[in-house]
Each structure stands twice: as C-alpha cells, then as structure tokens.
C-alpha cells in the first residue's frame, strides 16, 4: 500500500507532482501515455509529467536507453568520444572509459518501464520516487533522509555524477535499501527544468521512511527551525 506523503506536500508547499519510476507488466493503468522519440532524453517528458502524463519505455522504444537494462545508446568508443570530447565530462578518454565500465545497469523485471506521476494502485511496481523541489525544500528532504540512519548503514544521502535519468535509478547502491540521491545535476538535461528546480530521488524503502518521518511530530519536518524558515519566506516554501 502506498504510504501517505501528504504531510510532506503540505508542509513544504510542494507544487509539482511526485514522479515514480515503475517496472510494470501492463502500461494501461498509467494512461495517458507518451512515447519517446528516437534517442531523446527522459527529461524531455518533464512537461508531460507536470501535466499528469507518463513516459512509456520499452526495449523497442527506449529513448536514451539507460533505463532499459543493457540497451546502449551508442557504441562504447563513440560514447566515450561524445562524453569526453563534446560534453567535457572527464579529463581523458581513459577516465571516461573507466567510468562507463563501472556503470550499473538496471535490468527490468517486466516489459514496460513507466516514468510519471505516482499511481497508488501500482505501488507494487514502484522502484523510486522523485521530488522536484527548490533549494529550501531540498534541504528539508535531505534532513528527512538521514532521520533514521545509523553510522554503519549504507549512506542515506548521495550526490553522484551521471545522466539525469541515471540519477533517478541506477546510481543507488541498492534499490532495496533506504537511500536518496540529489539529482538533476546533469547540465545537458537541466534546460528541461525551471532554473531553481532540483531533483531528490528516493528508493521505495527511503520513500516509506520519509513518510514515517513526516508523521512523527518530533521530526525536523515539524521543528521550530522550519517554522522560522517558512516565516522568513513569507509563509510558504513554494
């Protein structure tokens, strides 16, 4: 059952829908759907997500390819040249190649990957949840991500280099562990977002912890410090 995240939305004055990454056997419950065109970036669908639509990916129509297992957008050497020589992401082809070779791939369990607004009745197929937030809202969610963590746990909060879509899925240490990642730091896709919008993606276990944190009256979400910040922002973090 999808947990209640309403206190987070209300307290932080979130205005953008939360976006889920789903690995599902049937795309019909996610309609209305949009399909990628060619190799286009997943974030080309950002305005569609804001309008309540869901991006539908398959092995035949996979966009850039990074969210569909071992589907590669370009041959390895060509990809290294593009990322290193055109985007300037590493100091040498060798370093770029090492990074590519270390990438984790996600192998879908089903034939359909769907990225779009949360669907409570599809919670069993949810893998991650992305909040699109401003810096104030991000800071509060970062505190929430660490609320239940122990020193010997996997890091509860990450910020890692990768394409925008990778930061929604494949850069986590373990999708079955409670982790969150600060994303949308790929400048190649940031033009699809508003200038002050950032991404905060949580694995499903972390999303559940955040919802528990949100209902704890002793947590940072309900502290006088956040009251003060909201007051200084004129009564809302939106």
Give a quick set of tags describing it:
7 helices; alpha+beta; 16% strand; 8-stranded mixed β-sheet; globular; 238 residues; 8 strands
Write down the overall geometry. Answer: globular
Q: Please provide the count of β strands.
A: 8
**Number of folding domains?**
1
- Strand residue percentage: 15-25%
Describe this structure in words.
With 238 residues, the protein is α+β, with helices and mostly antiparallel strands. The protein has one domain (6-70, 105-232). Helices cover 27% and strands 16% of the residues. The chain has helices at 6-12, 46-50, 76-86, 93-102, 135-146, 204-214, 224-232, and strands spanning 19-24, 33-34, 54-57, 112-117, 126-133, 157-158, 180-183, 198-203. An eight-stranded mixed sheet has the order 2-3-4-1-5-8-7-6. Strand 2, helix 2 and strand 3 (54-57) form a beta-alpha-beta unit. Helix 3 packs across helix 4 (93-102). It is globular. The model has no long low-confidence stretch (mean pLDDT 92).
Short recap of the structure:
By secondary structure, the chain is α+β, with helices and mostly antiparallel strands. The protein contains 7 helices and 8 strands; from the N terminus they run H-E-E-H-E-H-H-E-E-H-E-E-E-H-H.
How is the secondary structure organized here?
Elements: H1 6-12, E1 19-24, E2 33-34, H2 46-50, E3 54-57, H3 76-86, H4 93-102, E4 112-117, E5 126-133, H5 135-146, E6 157-158, E7 180-183, E8 198-203, H6 204-214, H7 224-232
Parallel strand pairs: 2-3, 6-7
Antiparallel strand pairs: 1-4, 1-5, 3-4, 5-8, 7-8
Helix pairs in contact: 3-4
């Amino acid at each position: 059952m999808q947990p209640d995240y309403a206190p987070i939305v209300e307290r932080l004055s979130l205005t953008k829908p939360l976006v889920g990454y789903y690995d599902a056997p049937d795309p019909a419950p996610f309609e209305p759907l949009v399909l990628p065109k060619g190799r286009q970036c997943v974030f080309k669908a950002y305005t569609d997500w804001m309008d309540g639509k869901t991006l539908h990916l398959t092995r035949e129509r996979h966009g850039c390819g990074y969210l569909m297992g071992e589907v590669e957008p370009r041959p390895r050497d060509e990809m290294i040249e593009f990322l290193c020589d055109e985007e300037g992401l590493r100091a040498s082809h060798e370093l770029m190649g090492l990074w590519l070779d270390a990438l984790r791939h996600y192998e879908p369990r089903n034939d359909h990957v769907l990225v779009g607004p949360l669907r409570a009745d599809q919670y069993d197929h949810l893998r991650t949840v992305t909040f699109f937030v401003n810096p104030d809202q991000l800071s509060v969610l970062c505190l929430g991500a660490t609320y239940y963590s122990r020193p010997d746990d996997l890091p509860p909060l990450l910020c890692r280099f990768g394409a925008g879509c990778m930061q929604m899925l494949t850069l986590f240490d373990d999708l079955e562990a409670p982790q969150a990642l600060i994303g949308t730091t790929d400048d190649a896709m940031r033009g699809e977002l508003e200038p002050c919008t950032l991404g905060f993606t949580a694995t499903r276990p972390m999303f559940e912890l955040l919802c528990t944190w949100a209902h704890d009256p002793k947590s940072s979400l309900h502290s006088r410090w956040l009251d003060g910040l909201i007051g200084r922002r004129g009564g809302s973090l939106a």
